[in-house]
Here is the input.
Amino acid sequence: MLEALALLGAAAWYAFELLTGAPVLTFWGAVFTLGLLLAFSAWLFAVGHFLFRGYRWTRAAALVAQLFVLTIGFPTMTGGLVLPGLAMILPALAAIVFLFQKSVIAYASRAGGTQGAL
Here is the structure.
């Protein structure tokens, strides 16, 4: 959920920059990027919500999200932006470790009904 809030904040900042006339290569490309930021933020909110409710599909969705963050974080860090890169990499690695803990696996075992899965 915190990552979703951070991404929503980044989307708000991006929209503010877009509306205040920051130079962009193509306006519609920037609007598309803003749409992607908002869509990914909404997806992360949904994953976080259903993870707290104990659905097992959310672990895979959360893992994919963390892998996406790592694919952006490592080039950011090696490209000279060390602090922003670490700000992406460290939470993603922590989330991956937490996703594979026995307590999380046991909690996130619902298949969709009110009964627990296996």
